[in-house]
Amino acid sequence: MDEEASLQKVQTTLGGRCHPMNSMETVPTDKPVMLHMPDGTTFRGELHMFYDGDDRDVGGWVCLDEGQAPADWSDDVCWAANEGGKPSTKPVGWSHLLERRAR
After folding, report:
1. In the Cβ-directed half-sphere of 78, how many Cα atoms lie within 13 Å?
2. Are 59 and 49 spatial neighbours (Cβ–Cβ below 8 Å)?
3. Residue 9 has pLDDT above 70, yes or no
4. What per-residue confidence (pLDDT) applies to 88?
5. Quick count: other Cβ atoms within 10 Å of Cβ 64?
6. Measured distance between the N- and C-terminal CA atoms of the chain, rounded to whole angstroms
């Protein structure tokens, strides 16, 4: 399934119950966001920078909600390749987190 088809599937699944979904090309990298997955699930995540074995910077999406990350994410992180050597399922979109207002 290509990215546009995935975006349409998620938007249909969500039925407009949250903020509009945006393309991953526009995701902010300095704050948590709601990540949208190809199967329609959503969870809070943010981009973290890590170092690989050669001291190179590598980034990975980190799930901020324990137990909500897809099964193919290793240690709740979306890596280019997970522990099994296969690609992790990548988010297809993002939206701003809903802000809680003081009462």
Report:
1. 22
2. yes
3. no
4. 93
5. 17
6. 44
Rounded to whole angstroms, the Cα distance separating 47 from 45 reads: 7
> Following CA atoms 3, 8, 9, 10 in sequence, which dihedral angle do they give, to the nearest 10 degrees?
90
Spatial distance between the Cα atoms of 28 and 6, rounded to a whole number of angstroms:
20
What b/e sequence results for 28-50 when a residue is b if at least 16 CB atoms lie within 10 Å of its CB, and e otherwise?
Answer: eeeeebbbbbbeebbbebbbeee
Closest CA to 68 of 42, 92, 87: 42
Q: Looking at the predicted structure, is the pLDDT value of residue 78 above 70?
A: yes
Burial of residue 15 (CB within 10 Å: 0-12, 13-18, 19+) is: exposed
Is residue 4 exposed (0-12), middle (13-18) or buried (19+ Cβ within 10 Å)?
A: exposed
pLDDT of residue 36: 95
The whole-number pLDDT of residue 67 equals 92
Structure tokens at 36: 């949208």
State yes or no: pLDDT of 64 exceeds 90.
yes
